[in-house]
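I am still getting used to backbone structure tokens and would like to learn alongside you. Label the sequence line and the structure token line clearly, so we can match residues to local backbone shapes. Go ahead whenever you are ready, and we will take it from there:
>
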Amino acid sequence: MKLARIILLALCTLMVGCGTVGKDFDSTKVKKIQNNVTTQIEILDWFGVPYKEGKENNHTMWTYQLDSWQAIGEGLSKGLVILFDDNNIVKAYRYESSY
């Protein structure tokens, strides 16, 4: 009985040490993005609603992000930041991943 309590306590500790922030997105479609060509509508179609929206020098900026961590081992992270011009066309983007 004491061993069962120790195992249960260890499992609870591990579960508390895990987490996720953001929303998953299909990173295989990142290669389809083209600066000065891809539209905001296409980005919505490929990746869905962004996790975060903001402004950079009065231009719309969307962020797609997924970060996960655990008590044991390395966490995983991937992020896509897209900057649009005044015509809602991709001006620039950056993708990073530890997957």
